[in-house]
Amino acid sequence: MPSALPIADPAPLDGLLPPSVVEGADSRNLGVYLHVPFCRVRCGYCDFNTYTAAEVRGVKQSDYASEAVAEVVLAGSVLAATGAPDRAASTVFFGGGTPTLLPADDLARMLGAVRDTFGLQPGAEVTTEANPDSVDAAYLERLAEAGFTRVSFGMQSAVPHVLATLERTHDPERIPHVVRWARDAGLQVSLDLIYGTPGESLDDWRASLDQALAQEPDHVSAYSLIVEPGTKMARQIKRGEVAEPDEDLQADMYELADSALAGAGYEWYEVSNWARDGRVSRHNLAYWQGHDWWGVGPGAHSHVGGVRWWNVKHPAAYADRMHAGVSPAAGRETLDAETREVERVLLATRVRGGLEIASLPAAARTAVAGLIADGLVEPAAALRGSIVLTLNGRLLADAVVRRLLD
Amino acid sequence: MSPRATTVLQPASTDPSAIRNFCIIAHIDHGKSTLADRMLQITGVVDERSMRAQYLDRMDIERERGITIKSQAVRMPWSLDGSPVVLNMIDTPGHVDFTYEVSRSLAACEGAILLVDAAQGIEAQTLANLYLALDNDLTIIPVLNKIDLPAADPEKYAKELASLIGGRPEDVLRVSGKTGEGVEQLLDRITELIPAPVGDAKAPARAMIFDSVYDAYRGVVTYVRMIDGAFSPREKVMMMSTKSTHELLEIGVSSPEPVASQGLGVGEVGYLITGVKDVRLSKVGDTVTSSAKPATVALKGYSEPKPMVFSGLYPIDGSDYPVLREALDKLKLSDAALVYEPETSVALGFGFRCGFLGLLHLEIITERLEREFNLDLIATAPSVIYEVTTEDKKRTTVTNPSEFPGGKISSVSEPIVRAAILTPKDYVGTVMELCQGRRGSLIGMEYLGEDRVEIKYTMPLGEIVFDFFDQLKSRTQGYASLDYEPVGEQEADLVKVDILLQGEQVDAFSAIVHRDKAYAYGTLMTERLRKLIPRQQFEVPIQAAIGARIIARESIRAMRKDVLAKCYGGDITRKRKLLEKQKEGKKRMKMVGRVEVPQEAFIAALSGDTETKEKK
């Protein structure tokens, strides 16, 4: 079937952006995402761009921070060349892979480059993802010193057989310790959970939620396991070695998570994210709210003013580009007004109150009535003018989006 | 190989006593076309170089399926004991659906070769055509083919043939179309045994049409057998059923390429070209006479082709509808038996209700539409013609379940056929069980040789068109063969079962079935659809109903989760592509009320393929 998408444009070697990206830049935050494409082991369900060897085709993990710093510097000059007003970064996020596989000093150096190039806004949110078994108290203290404000632990589950299926190697007993060390260092804590793993029961999931809530994190993400084509788990399912995740059970698990989290004082602010006392992940929200961000590192995606691009995936190819002093971008697309509108609805619907009904075209406004009737959209919020998904609406969020865009 | 005939007799001046008209009666795969090819070679009408396998089967489908759909006639020179003769081989279609065409081909001959695979023995269809040939008083020459095969058992099957048609097993000729062994002897035997045609050369011309073929360049080519009188070029001829007159633009014989001649005389076989563009103006079975000096009495046996089986044909891509219309219009030019009219279905969109002579005819037309016109089609379950009388004494002819009248029905009559099934004796029980299950009533059973049995049943045609042949084949490991002929109508307790999706009727799934089978059909279809239709945002009941009475019910549970957990490191493009793919998918959805059904689900339900449920 021919894809309806235009074929992506090639990205220019100098990485320069069209003048159109300046428009409205004042009203958009600037975020920086730094990808760290290394893991100690690859988990069976993971299709992220990550590599497990210390040295990949002659590229060393120990050289990676320098390459990332080079791209941050490139980002600074590209954005300056657009003529846009200077913006300090509101959020910085280190993801992976496993960022904490690198020495804390490397992360600090990369953050330093962001600070030197763009500056950080007062109260900027600086997060790193962390594997519970790759950090200790000293490591977390070093991060806090360097300016990190948040750490997001990949807890996934508290149940050993679930962790084993996910091929996560950390000891669940370690979670309380790493959370305490992070707190002691002054970092906010988020716990990332995965539900719907083959073999995971509703009770298993309840135990994981209880364990997570017992740590009193500031923030919880709960993602349903998606079996991506090409992963080891997809092959295991195809061979019948592992049961396919059951969507009905996943729905039950989502409902359980929402009620447990709400009962403990956490409010959902995005389909898969809950926070207490307003401690949402601003970086995560920026993706759904159409802000600008520069994604640094192999395979990282960026968005600035309606232009999206993505970097070459392989660390070696990335290193080559950085050493040659050219943009690592592999392809880009410039969104037209219609596509931007589609994306706006697609993304903002997932955020609590993220979509103003008045901003929608007439047909979509009419569709809202049907969505309320079907119990997918909160009536009270709709009367006040914004879309807030009900529990059912969140479970069927993609269907809601299709109905709004029909 | 050099032809034996040194003198070639010319058309229009050949004495009837030197003519032999014959056909070959054979089952699919028993090697008729290969034998015909050898005859063409041995008589020298086709040289080695231009010989291509199965020369006479012109259509790709015929060649690939190894069956002959349309007949042809070839004139071949031969000689026996120094006297030249002309052998006209009339190729007959080999299938039950084309019985009428077969009967016309037979009527054009004085003799028939009964060709049977020496490894398989005679099949039901061949038997049926053999009876037809005997009815036409044809001289039968029994021949076993494929004697070169290791599995050939000529002794056994020679006995079987001898017991069928009389004579001694050693009179049964043994040939190999593949190697050519025995083919010359066969040509000799044709010359010796088959009577020369007899006709009145002075009477007004009468010729019987035994085939009519549309050719894109030449218009309709009409194949005839001269009975009385003669035709000459540029003469005006008249079709006796329609009284339409045409000028003979060309007259000639196939050898096997068309060769124009000075005319055709008594007993000869050849072709006429009048420039007409539609085979309906030159129908098989009709009598052609001279316009200037017309005959008063037409030859016997003409009948209009009558569709027996009906099915809706729909393009899978709705925008192909005009292509389908054009394609049917074109096929109609060469197939007088094909009828169709536009039809609309909620489930399948725009299509055509088509009438066919039988199931194979349906299959062949569908395949030609797909192959020659590059169409992707879905056919609804085949239906037959029902006569429905309501309590207010109104009679309705129903060829489509949607025409079945509502309200009180006082009677329904359905076509019945006499089915003859030929099977190895080990499968008699299995075959009888199948036939009883299809409301058959046994007429009789007869042993054919030692281990094969002919079983005769009266059965509703409606039971045969629905999956019967496949069942018969699969339950007998492919050994049983089937033939049937219409024998009238019977009243039966038939009802229309509708399938409802969330209360909305899905027209393509309505079926007229016997009351005893309504429940089984209802559960079958509701269960199939439950498996095939993806979950919606609400629960969807699927019901089977007779009128207002629900007889079966299933339901598709509401979909509970339709959301992607996250976007990967800001890869919004991927998420948008997914949405666009979903929206693209929705365009191909058919809406039944509020229920979105992928067309593939309907197609799979109709074809019985339930393995392909799409995951949203």
Question: Can you describe this structure?
Answer:
The complex is a heterodimer of chains A (406) and B (616). Chain A has 406 residues and is of the alpha/beta class. Chain A is 39% helix and 20% strand. Chain A is built from 15 helices and 16 strands. In chain A, helix 1 (64-81) packs across helix 10 (315-324), helix 3 runs parallel beside helix 5 and helix 12 runs antiparallel to helix 15. By secondary structure, chain B is of the alpha+beta class. Chain B has 14 helices and 31 strands. In chain B, helix 12 runs antiparallel to helix 14 (599-607). Chain B starts with 18 loop residues before the first strand and ends in a 9-residue tail after the last helix. At the A-B interface, helix 8, strand 12, helix 11 and helix 15 of A face helix 13 of B.
Unreliable segments of chain A (pLDDT under 50, ≥5 consecutive)?
A: 1-6
Number of distinct beta strands of chain A: 16
Overall shape of chain A: globular
Mean pLDDT over the full residue set of chain A: 92
- Helical content of chain A stands at 25-40%
In short:
The complex is a heterodimer of chains A (406) and B (616). By secondary structure, chain A is of the alpha/beta class.
